[in-house]
């Protein structure tokens, strides 16, 4: 059995989330927690040691793994200290604010012979897993477009997320997850990227972005996120030459969900254009389909669970196998984020792995 004795560094929103989730995983023991604000730890379970200084948590001899859950700019300092103390590292996303910082963290972990991974657990999200399966199982034929949409109405960001120097903004916060999902589902080189990144109502940090990935095969992936969309929803489209898969969770209408693939048994390239009258005039391309041409299927039912990421972590520690989220993958996520920023700055597409 893996010997995983955690110290949770940072006991704010996500520190508490980790505590609640890990209570359901008996293979991991939580030895200690740490927060510079002592009152944050008032509700900690009994028996867990409490510290207010990260050095003390890291030095605790019973802690062999540090789970870093403090604000983004502090990840590097904590990871370097943990590595130098010989502790394994699980770091919250975004692992670092720059690729150079991340490289330093990796170098320290390698030098110390400790294992490190990053908690990019949204690879197990129930909206993502079926869409990845659609693509991997070829359920829409040859894919030409993947679109991931995340729209919210709560506009203003909160706490340290509103400060650029704290690694605030939505690209660091949600962008890293959404980018990681696209790179996890599409196993191809990214030839170029384009981005539009805006501050809609936040003065200093981004709260809207459109990210476009152009892959080697010609497949395009797009991510659009806005914290100030008055039509809030989470949605996905995967479109190919024999089908279109749709997942849509409508936050306005009681989280109403649509999950389906609309398919055809043959390529539609030879379907003759039929003139249809619409309110906008006649069209040969956009009328309703002929009866029987298309049929619907449910999305693949792939079981997924909020414990999956940590279960995978335990397996990798027990078997000495690579983590699900590898360090080169995290580095690629951070590099592509830089390319998106460059594109947004210049207004031009930026070559990536061409
Ligand atoms: N993977 C996910 O889905 C997910 C979700 C939310 C947050 N996160 C990540 O978790 C990290 C924390 O985010 P959060 O939302 O919990 O923030 P938060 O502000 O709610 O909590 C951070 C906590 O760290 C404490 N802290 C600050 N500096 C410290 C220090 N030097 N030593 C000890 N404690 C310190 C703060 O007092 C606070 O309680 C961020 O990197 C964020 O991106 C990940």
Summed up, what is this model?
About 25% of the residues lie in helices and about 25% in strands.
What topology does this entry show?
Layout: E1 4-9, H1 13-22, E2 28-34, E3 49-51, H2 54-59, E4 65-68, H3 75-84, E5 88-92, H4 99-112, E6 116-119, H5 128-136, E7 143-151, H6 170-185, E8 190-198, E9 208-215, E10 220-226, E11 233-240, E12 243-250, E13 256-263, E14 276-278, E15 281-283, E16 295-297, H7 308-319, H8 327-346, E17 350-351
Parallel strand pairs: 1-2, 1-4, 2-3, 4-5, 5-6, 7-10
Antiparallel strand pairs: 7-11, 8-9, 8-17, 9-10, 11-12, 12-13, 13-16, 14-15
The chain binds nicotinamide-adenine-dinucleotide.
Any idea how many domains? 2
- Give the helix level as a range of percent: 25-40%
Gross morphology is elongated
Number of helices: 8
Bound molecules: nicotinamide-adenine-dinucleotide
Strand order across the largest sheet: 16-13-12-11-7-10-9-8-17
What is the CATH superfamily of the largest domain? Dihydrodipicolinate Reductase, domain 2
Beta-strand percentage range: 25-35%
Rounded to the nearest angstrom, the radius of gyration is: 23 Å
CATH topology label of the largest domain? Dihydrodipicolinate Reductase, domain 2
Mean pLDDT: 95
State the end-to-end CA separation: 44 Å
* CATH class wording of the largest domain: Alpha Beta
Order of helices and strands: EHEEHEHEHEHEHEEEEEEEEEHHE
Structural class: alpha/beta
**Strand element count:** 17
Largest sheet: 9 strands, mixed
CATH architecture of the largest domain: 2-Layer Sandwich
In terms of per-residue confidence, which ranges show pLDDT below 50 for 5 or more consecutive residues?
none
């Amino acid at each position: 059995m893996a010997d995983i004795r955690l110290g949770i560094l940072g006991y704010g929103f996500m520190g508490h989330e980790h505590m609640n989730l890990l209570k359901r995983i008996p293979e991991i023991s939580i030895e200690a927690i740490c927060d510079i604000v002592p009152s944050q730890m008032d509700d900690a379970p009994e028996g867990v040691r409490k510290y207010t200084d990260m050095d003390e948590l890291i030095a605790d001899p019973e802690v062999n793994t540090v789970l870093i859950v403090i604000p983004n700019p502090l990840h590097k300092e904590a990871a370097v200290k943990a590595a130098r103390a010989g502790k394994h590292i699980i770091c919250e996303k975004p692992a670092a604010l720059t690729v150079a910082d991340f490289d330093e963290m990796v170098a320290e972990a390698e030098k110390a012979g400790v294992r490190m991974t990053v908690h990019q657990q949204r690879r197990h999200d129930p909206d993502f897993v079926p869409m990845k399966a659609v693509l991997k199982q070829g359920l829409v034929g040859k894919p030409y477009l993947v679109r991931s949409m995340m729209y919210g109405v709560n506009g203003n960001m909160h706490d340290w997320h509103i400060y650029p120097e704290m690694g605030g903004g939505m690209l660091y916060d949600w962008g890293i997850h959404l980018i990681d999902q696209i790179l996890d589902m599409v196993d191809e080189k990214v030839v170029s990227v384009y981005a539009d990144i805006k501050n809609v109502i936040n003065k200093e940090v981004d709260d809207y972005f459109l990210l476009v990935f152009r892959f080697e095969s010609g497949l395009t992936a797009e991510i659009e996120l806005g914290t100030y969309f008055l039509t809030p929803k989470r949605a996905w489209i995967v479109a190919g030459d024999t089908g279109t898969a749709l997942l849509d969770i409508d936050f306005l209408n009681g989280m109403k969900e649509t999950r389906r693939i609309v398919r055809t048994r043959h390529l539609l390239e030879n379907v003759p254009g039929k003139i249809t009258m619409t309110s906008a005039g006649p069209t040969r391309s956009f009328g309703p389909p002929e009866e029987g041409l298309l049929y619907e299927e449910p999305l693949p039912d792939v079981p997924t669970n909020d414990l999956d990421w940590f279960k995978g972590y335990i397996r990798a520690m027990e078997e000495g196998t690579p983590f699900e989220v590898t360090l080169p993958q995290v580095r690629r996520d951070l590099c592509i984020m830089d390319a998106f920023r460059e594109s947004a700055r210049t207004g031009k597409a930026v070559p990536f792995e061409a």
